[in-house]
Amino acid sequence: MRKVKALIIPVTPFQQNCTLLWCEATKRAVVIDPGGDLAEIERAIAEADVAVDKIWLTHGHVDHVGAAADLKTRLNVSIEGPHRDDLFLLQEVEETARAFGLSNVCNVTPDRWLEDGDKVEVGELTFDVLHCPGHSPGSVAYFNGDERLAIVGDVLFAGSVGRTDFPGGDSRQLLASITDKLLPLGDDVAIISGHGPTTTIGRERASNPFLQ
Ligand SMILES: [Zn+2]
Ligand SMILES: [Zn+2]
Description:
It is built from 7 helices and 13 strands. The protein is α+β, with helices and mostly antiparallel strands. The N and C termini lie far apart (35 Å). The mean pLDDT is 97.
């Protein structure tokens, strides 16, 4: 039986895939990218009947982090990630939110910045941190080799790749991140992206038009 469970909660007008992920053996959980719609996230936590230990962030964009500071306070948990290179984004979350007409959004100060090669834990599960710049300079992915699962934020999508026209974006760097960090994880690895359906490394390697 799989030790990891994941429940995707689309949040914000951007339908961002906030992910409640937990260790089935211990019922300890993390909330990955709580971008908004706090009530729905809290409802999912209650329905799953898990105890949240941490918030993990994949990168600093408002649709991924907008409710992180609020959720941190309400659950009394720490925020891990992303990489420090997204500091400038996390400091301008409120300003960006105004431009998009989003409310109830706060700037974010992580408790722990993550580097490539770091490890993060939830219950009995350990995830490797992969620094994947390109969509944003501080984007990270979380990978568990035993469970064959990666949470990749906006780096790679089913049939597409992350935008690189935001501040700090770099298309060459993005493709290098995908090619050097994500594709080598293995074709059987399931991918939870920041938007849209789940996919696998194998499917994207074979059919993603941006990777041919
Ligand atoms: Zn993004
Ligand atoms: Zn996004």
